[in-house]
Every structure is written in C-alpha cells, then in structure tokens.
Fold this sequence. Notes:
Oligomer: single chain
Number of domains: 1
Largest sheet: none
Structural class: mainly alpha
Radius of gyration: 35 Å
Order of helices and strands: HH
Helix content: over 70%
Transmembrane segments: 66-83
Organism: Caulobacter zeae
Keywords: Membrane, Transmembrane, Transmembrane helix
Protein name: CsbD family protein
Mean pLDDT: 87
Amino acid sequence: MTVTGPLSLDARHRAKAKGKFEEAGAHAKDAYGSLKGGAEELYEGGREHVQDGLRLIESKVRDKPALALTAAIGLGVLLGLLLRGPRTVYVRARVSTRS
C-alpha cells in the first residue's frame, strides 16, 4: 500500500530536514573541535610566555634586590598618584591690611 498526498510529502520533507540538521550538527562539531584545539594551543603558548617572563623577573630581582625594591616603590608611588584622581585645591584670597 502506497500513501500519496500531503502526508507522504510531509514525511519526505521531515526526513530531508532531519538529514540536513544532522549534517549541520556534524559540521558544528568539527568547527568546535578545531576552535577548541586552536584555543588550547594559544593558551599554552601564552602560559609559557608568562612563565618565561616571571623567571626573567625573578632572576633580575635575585641579581639586584636593591634596584628591584627601588623600582617597586617607584611604581607603587606612581600608581598611587594615578589612582587617587584629581584633587581640588582651594586658595584663600589675600586680605590686604593696608588702608
């Protein structure tokens, strides 16, 4: 028995749509996998650069601790000045005592 009419057409459309959705899902999984791999590589590369920088700073501090302390104090003062924001200065008018 063969069913013809709107029901069979609707079933074919559903099957075709299901196939397209499955194909799109497979493409999305592939894209996700490739993006995830690229992100992991970038993360590892950045992490290595940060660790190299920290090792370099540590060696400089061990070689010249006084210079490192002076630089840290200077940076602290500079950051403090930058973060405090603008200050309002009030100037009192001079009163003349001469008559």
